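A quick aside before the break. I want you to see a complete sequence-to-structure record at least once, exactly as it would be stored in a machine-readable document. Don't worry about memorizing anything.
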Amino acid sequence: MNAFKENFMQKSSLLCFLTMVLIGLSGCNSDEPTFLSYVVPEPIPIQEVDNRVYPLSLLQLDKGIDVLLVIDNSGSMGPIQENVKKNARLFFEQFAKQAYVNWKIGIISTDQNEPPFLGFEKSFDSSMVDPSDPNSFNRVVEEFQTAVGRLGTSGSASEYTYYNIKRAVDRYNGSLGESFLRANAHFVTIMISDEEEQSDDFSPTQYDPLAFYNTMGQYISSNKILRFYGAIKHKDLPGCTSGGGFSPWIGSSFERIIKVSDGFAISACKDNFGTDLARIGEDIVSLVGLPSLLLRRRPRVETIKVFYEETLLPPGRDEDGGYWFYEEETNTINFYRMDFVQDLENDRFFIEFDIDDGINRDDWPR
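That is the input. The structure line, written in tokens, reads:
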């Protein structure tokens, strides 16, 4: 019996020792209290600060936009053309000063026999705006206004908008020189007229709005956008109470192609024509989305600082003076505008933040 008791005590001591090792108990004798030993861990330090240089060339952009204006040049178009020229600056300010928008513009008339007036024989594009030369923007606006002036109002009384879009694109397709439409660019057409579209005189089937939209969609890459806008004078549009088109806007060929392409029309009769024309410019810019930078690590959002060269750019909404916002889903810094950029090719962003390692330390002992 004594041997059995001694063997039992030895085994109990061994079990107690193993228990101490495994769960940190102290005191195995029945005469001593047993306590749980808890060691407060040291807070895991925040990982190193991510402080990186991002050349502007890393901006994720879908920035190419080819814009074609088709302007009616019949005898009644004088006031509308003057309105276009007068408000050209408002239109261009929406995108021509944005360094990240790679735009190209052409102007043609609705006359079936006239050559283009701008942007085909010689490219009229974003390379003409030099951020270091404020006068370069003025020269772009003036050249555009001059081209509209040359277009004039002595053209045919028949307005062939669709026909001339296709004619110009087919003629300048790259086989005899530079193509007007560029690979990997969105394609936007702005139709400006005070009469109904008449290309169905050539072929009602080919120039049906939906059929024509599908035809022109074949000229661009499948991942690019084809969009039609209009500055139109029809009798049931705002401000067009007297005169203005022989057919109503609703159900017209212009209305149908603009609707199917997700564009919109403005009334060419309104006094605030320039403000509405600027809306088209603003919507064109939206096609390329916001320029963004993909961060290499996940940030603690409240620690993000964004510098353009040596200038700190405040976050927040554009209307409140902010320049950027962070999008968690894509882990990107997204910029509302780029008009502050001097050199898109060579300038740099500096972005710094504390790395988010997934550990919440807010309730940890200090």
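Two observations worth writing down. The first helix runs from residue 2 to 23. The mean pLDDT is 83. We'll return to this after the break.
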